[in-house]
Structures are given as structure tokens and as C-alpha cells.
Amino acid sequence: MSLLPAVDRAAFAVAFADRLRRHGVAVELTATQDFVRALMAVPPVSRTPLYWAARVTLVRRRPDLALFDEVFEAVFGEALLSVDPNARRDGVRSGPRGGDARAPVPGEPYDVSGTSGERRGLPWVTLPPVVADADHRDDVEPSVPQRLPSELAGVLDVPFEQLDAVQAQLLGRWLERALRDWPVRRSRRYAVRPGGPRVAIRETAARARRTGWDPVQLVRTGPVRRPRRVVVLCDVSRSMQAQAQAYLHLMRALALTTHAEVFAFATSLTRLTTTLGNRSTEAALEEATERVTDRFGGTRIAHCLSTLLASHHGGAVRGAVVLIGSDGWDGDPPERLAAAMARLRRRAHLVIWLNPRAASPGFVPRTTTMTAALPYVDLLLPADTFADLLRVPGEVARHVRRS
Fold first, then answer.
1. DSSP per residue over 168-213, as a string?
2. pLDDT of residue 127
């Protein structure tokens, strides 16, 4: 017997979602649709299945759990349900008498296996599935996708200037894990690999010694794939003050995961590769802030690019993916920036410009310096939130495959 007989499930779900919104719970339209589908797929026979169907589909953030329980209790705590004569007295925490399990209290440990016999149902957190690379390469092992805690998932799309230091640091750690899947390149070195295109003569002859010099088993080799070299240049001038801290987290993540060469620039160029490689995030960011003495001042992009190309670190740009994080405001003449970008483009494999202003609707580069640099840029990507930074590896991989 259904808990809600002769009730329009769509109208019920919309009304309940509207009640949650009016009490401060962020409920999206897609979540309401999921709630309707859950009610149609498994009609609830008691308040406990109804509680879980609503909680799993409508609540996306852990801080909203307490508000959800209050609203659910207010809606169903005083309701007389035909199949549950004790609903008025029991409330949402305990199910009806007759063996139905009670809904869990937020913060309590949940018995996923259901062996305790007291609580059963859907857990709040489920293990993500193990996925493998679509190409099924032998050198790529199956991995488990990383999922952000609900407190952090809600601030992925929040602009950098609205994040506090703790949130930025936690998101920076997740950024380090996400950037481990950086695009790779085929190197000249070969290694033993089953199904490789070449036969390793030395290894095959060594194994043939065991079979009377008859090569029964051929040892094959394939090219070794290495992460493509990365060079990062981030603007830390006054116009980029709101994004400087987040871009330092990006530079640290790339320095740790891809061994990138990272530089900060305003009116001069400062190399931060060894500084941001510190094991402690706090110590690395503090030391990097102290080393960049011209931060939050003017901007000379052309001068800093020319300094990099003329230094002994300019060789690192050759064949690399170059990331430039800047809003495009420059004190140098546009023609000088165009000349420096042309030299950079001839050396680099890919030039990507991360512009926080590009996230604005209808963005059009109107500054003369940004207009001068665009002909030598392969990708112009928005970089106003951590969600934008997490999309960078995928965009790079797609562009590398097309090229």
C-alpha cells in the first residue's frame, strides 16, 4: 500500500521543494525532477523510504541536512498517515511499529552493510565506481574518480575573491589530485610493454637462452609516455590581486604533479618552482609571497616574457604547454607584447591564456594589449573559479589530440 494514495506526485514534490527553498535549502529544478522519478520508481510505503527518497534527491550540501530535517518534521510530524497510526507520536527519527527502520540522525555513523539490524536503506555517501581509460592502454591503470565533499562542491563555482583562506587551501589540494591526469606525450624512449609495436631483440635473445636459443616468446616494447612539459606564468599585479592566491595554488599543483616551471610576474619575473615545491602548503605560499617583491603593483607582460625567453630557463618553453594567467592589462606597448608572444608561440607547443575576465557573459577583449596577444594564443579560457581551473587539463588534452 502506498503512503500517498491518490496524490499527484509531481504536485507533492514541487510543493515540498518550494517549502525547502523558503526555509533556506538550495533545491534545484533537476533535483525536484529526480524526486518525482524516485516516487514513481519506488512508491514509499512508510515515512522512512519517503525520507530517504527526499533527502538523497533534494539535498546536495551537508550544511542543509539540519534544515531539511526540520522541514520534514514540520510537514510530516503532525500528519495522520493512513498506513501509520503512530506517525503523530513517533516523528521522523523513528519508523512505524512493525519492523520498519528509523531514519538516521545526521552525524551518526551509518551501517552501510545493514548488519546491525536497526537501520537499513540508502547511505548518504556511496563509493565511486572504478573507471579505466577509454583507450584501454596498458600503461594506464584504472582509477577511482575523486569526489569533493559537499562543503567544497558548493563553492567550486564561487569567484576567488569570495573564498576564505581555508576554502582556497582545501580546493588547492583537490586541484593537485585533479591535475595528475595531465596530457602526456610520446617520448623517444622505449620500454617493455605487452602488445608493443617493436620486438626487443636483446630481451628476446636473453629469454631464448632458456629454450635452446629458439625464440619461443617475443618480447615487445612500446614508447614511454611522459607528461608534456608545462611552463606557467601568473600575473600578480594589482588588477589580479583577487585571483593571485588561487593562481598560486594552480602553480603549486602543476609544480608538484607535472614538474612544471612556474613564474610570477608583475613588473619583473620571479621563478617560484623550487619555492612552491615545499611539502607544506602554508610554508610554500608564504615563502612565495615573500619572494615576489613587486606584487600588487604595475604590470609589464612583454618585458617579463622577453626576460624569460632570454634567460637560461627559456629552453624549458620549447615544446611545452605554456599557461599565462593574466587579465591582459599591460603597461608595455602592444607591439612589444605582440613581438614577445610571437617568439613564445614559435617555441611552445601550445599557448593557453587564462583570463578571469573571460568568465563574464558577452566577454570581448577590448584592451589593446590583449588584442595584440590573441593571434598567438591557441586557447583563451575563463579562470574565475576553481571549477574553471579544474577544466584546464581536459581542454588541453582535447586541443593536443586535435593538433
1. HHHHHHHHHHHGGG--EEEEEEEEE-TT-SEE-HHHHHHHHGGGTT
2. 42
145/292 Cα distance (integer angstroms)? 35
Instruction: Provide the pLDDT for residue 1.
Output: 52
SS3 of residue 84 by DSSP: strand
Helix (H, G, I), strand (E, B) or coil at 323: strand
Q: How far is residue 402's CA from residue 396's CA, in Å, rounded to a whole number? A: 10
Cell of 256: 608538484
332-365 exposure pattern, b = at least 16 Cβ within 10 A, e = fewer: bebebbbbbbebbbebbbbbbbbbbbbbeeeeeb
- Chain centroid to CA 252: how far? 15
C-alpha cell at 364: 570581448
Counting other chains too, the contacts that 212-217 makes at CB distance below 8 Å and 24 or more residues apart are none
Question: Which residues have C-beta within 8 Å of that of residue 390, sequence separation ≥ 6?
Answer: 156, 175, 178
Residue 2 CA to residue 8 CA, distance in Å, equals: 12
**Is a pLDDT exceeding 80 seen at residue 177?**
no
Rounded CA gap, 253 and 267, in Å?
24
pLDDT of residue 123: 32
- Most confident region among 7-16, 32-41, 155-164, 272-281 by mean pLDDT: 32-41
- Cα-Cα-Cα-Cα torsion 275, 276, 278, 282, nearest 10 degrees, comes to 110
Rounded Cα–Cα distance for residues 234 and 295 (Å): 11
Instruction: Give the mean model confidence (pLDDT) for residues 79-94.
Output: 39
- This prediction has a pTM of 0.56
Structural element, H or E, at residue 51: helix 47-58
Average pLDDT over residues 177-203: 79
Task: Give the mean pLDDT of 210-229.
Answer: 84
Nearest to 356 by CA among 323, 326, 390: 326
Give the pLDDT score at 2: 62
Task: Tell me the CA distances in angstroms from 219 to 126, 192, 222, 338, 385, one per residue in order.
Answer: 42, 7, 10, 51, 48
